[in-house]
Amino acid sequence: MNILMSFLGGVALLLLGMQMAGEGLQKAAGARLRSILNTLTTNRFSGLLVGTVMTAIMQSSGATTVLLVSFVGSGLLAFEQTIAVILGANIGTTFTVQLIAFRLTDYALLLVAIGFLISSFSKGSARHFGRAVLGFGLIFLAIRIFGDTMAPLKDNPFVAQVLTAIGQDLWLGIMTGAVVTALMNSSAATIGIAIVMAHHGLMPLSAAIPIVLGANIGTCALSMFSAFGAPLEARRVATAHGLIKTIGVLLMVPVVGPFIHFTSLSAPDVARQIANGHTAFNFLLSLLFLPLATPFARLIKRLLPANPNEEVGFQIRYLDERILGSPILALGAANREVRRMADRVQVMISEVMELFLKGNEEVTDHIEKLETELDSLTKAIINYLSSLSQNALTEEESRKASAILYIVNDLEHIGDMLTKMALLGKKKIEMALVFSEQGINELIEMHDKVATNLDMAIVSFMTSDRQLAEKVMETKPKIARLERDLRAAHLSRLWAGQQFSRQTSTIHLDLINGWQRINDHAVNVAQAVLES
Fold it and tell me: 243 and 385 share a domain?
């Protein structure tokens, strides 16, 4: 019982350490992680590098693949781009295993102490880096616990019999590695335990390598699970990840003997040999599949063809709960949905003016549809950021989340205002009202200025351009003055007894007031940019 409790505690400590190390590195990377993601291009070599770096940071190839499932499902990446990233993720996951093989257990408590001190007395990126150091300290502490727990098992006949059976049956070893990895959701943890057992003489290299191969299959469980109910492209990513690993293991089975011999020559220490075997296997996968990335992608598309009868309507694209654990990525996803809100607002502001100039009553239905979509996006973004706020956010991340909420609120109000304007346009058409030539020119002038200011506000938000935001801020008194001038000009025509001005007076004044209020919301967007 003592051995079992120590083993379970060691597993928990190992998984906790990996989680802390991954979260710490992600938050320490901050915006740099986003720039890493932005390098995802059709260049397969850069994709390989990006996958390697991302997984070394996130401490899990499964987590990287889950992100790819999310990105492809939301349309951020084409499926073909993900093959190279998956191969890179396979290499990146060997980073932690190599660290474990260095046998840094003597420094485990020192790393825990250093990590604790840095995370407790530092701020910003340094604090998150301290948590990563603390996480690695816990990993090595768990390895020490495993060593102390397993040493007495060396002479246990039952344990020796089980491990001998695994060593003699290749498929049993592969299955064991796959199942244990799927349960622990970490190939590094499974291989780390195998390294400790081998170091204490409990497991020969011939038994460890099949477990390593099985662990590479088991790590696909997370991405396969994450793809259930996901869009077609996302299911293709998960299938590609699983097939790459499975095909690689099947190709390795006939030559596992020479591979074990080759691995035994890579280092004098069995722990290092196991880590090198894991790394070599994933490098070989990359060498095999990278040149075949395009035809392999075509194969996956044949296995999972698109359904032409599947209806695709409006939907929330980017808000994936699976990336809430990475705030910088989740905020990026929310930003992309805000961009979709802004796109709809910009279409609405153009169509409203078309309604008044050309009398095209059909656009009112489209404006109402866009307003409904704005409401859906607003609710989804607010709920998503509320869920994100349950995580421990940095001060900068909290400011960005607050700025997004302010901007979402302003865009929704702009949408409501434009919908009301559309109803005024519909009323004008139904009553066969006509603006005076001077009145329509004034409305066009104010519309153009406000539309330009709103565009600048949106661009300032998307690009974090403070100078552009300040330029938008300067428009508030100018538009307020323009609104007063246009109101006075209209009233002058009204006092002069112009028929058109008398008939359209209420609509005309409501419109110029509406444009001013829309500009006020554009200024609020710029203000949020400056405050974030």
Answer: no
pTM (predicted TM-score):
0.65
The answer to whether position 394 is within a domain reads: yes
Nearest-Å Rg of the Cα atoms of the chain is 30
495 part of a folded domain = yes
Predicted confidence (pLDDT) per residue in 179-236, tens digit: 888 887 778 888 888 888 888 788 888 889 999 999 989 888 766 776 666 667 778 8
pLDDT in tens, 84-102: 888 888 888 888 788 878 7
Sequence-distant (6+) residues with CB within 8 A of 30 are 125, 128, 328, 394, 396
Residue 248 shares a structural domain with residue 343? no
CA nearest 174: which of 223, 216, 204, 203? 216
Q: How far apart are the first and last CA of the chain?
A: 54
The boundaries of the domain holding residue 36 are 2-303
From CA 421, how far away is CA 339, in angstroms rounded?
A: 23
Same domain? 290 vs 373: no
Same domain, 419 and 523: yes
Tell me the one-letter amino acid at 127. R
